[in-house]
Amino acid sequence: MEFHQVIRLKSGKECILQNGSEQDGSDLLSIFLLTHEQTDYLASYPDESTMTEEDEAAFLKEKTLSPDEIEILARIDGTVVASAGIWRIGKKDKVRHRAEFGISVSKDYWGLGIGRALTKACIECARKAGYTQLELEAVAENERAINLYESEGFVEYGRNPKGFQSRHTGWQELVLMRLEL
């Protein structure tokens, strides 16, 4: 799936949102490792990643060719500062209407509107792909993210009190959220 949009950030800078291509493997791996180091709210730690630049390149190529999945990169002055994507829950009849959403933004770029723009872009892509439900999990104490998702129409449908076990803080409760498209 392909996507391209230029947005103006709260800082006045221009940010390009575009599906990643095979040539962006190194950039995706770098932003993944950086964002997973910067916050305890993502699903893994950098040292748990087994992906190489080549793996990320193949992943991005697959997403670009996919009619119903995408990985979008956010670039400022040519540098990737965030990524977000949607992927199908499954291909079977009972679940093919559902997609999952994930996002990460470099801490240096929080509060500029990138997260909201990527969320909107992924919602748009999910609709275009024909999904009728978009889902995500957020760490309960990540109030900024939850407020963003709620403002875009996501609603809580449950909680997992021991969803993550952080190396730093112990158990983290996950908020399960969904958006009807």
Please, could you describe this protein's structure?
The chain is of the alpha+beta class and 181 residues long. The chain has a single domain, classed as Gcn5-related N-acetyltransferase (GNAT) (Aminopeptidase, 3-Layer(aba) Sandwich), CATH 3.40.630. It contains four helices and eight strands; from the N terminus they run ββααβββαβαββ. The chain has helices spanning 25-38, 53-65, 114-129, 143-151, and strands spanning 4-8, 14-19, 70-76, 79-88, 98-105, 133-139, 155-166, 170-180. It is globular, with a radius of gyration of 16 Å. The two termini are 18 Å apart.
> What characterizes the major β-sheet?
8 strands, mixed
Quickly count the domains: 1
Per CATH, the superfamily is: Gcn5-related N-acetyltransferase (GNAT)
Strand content: 35-45%
CATH C-level class:
Alpha Beta
With strands numbered from the N-terminus, the spatial order across the biggest sheet is 1-2-3-4-5-6-8-7
Mean residue pLDDT:
97
Low-confidence stretches: none
What structural class should be given to the helix and strand makeup? alpha+beta
Helix content: 25-40%
Tally of strands: 8
Distance between the termini: 18 Å
What is the rounded Rg? 16 Å
Q: What is the count of helical runs?
A: 4
Return the string of H and E elements: EEHHEEEHEHEE
Shape: globular
CATH-defined topology: Aminopeptidase
* The CATH architecture: 3-Layer(aba) Sandwich
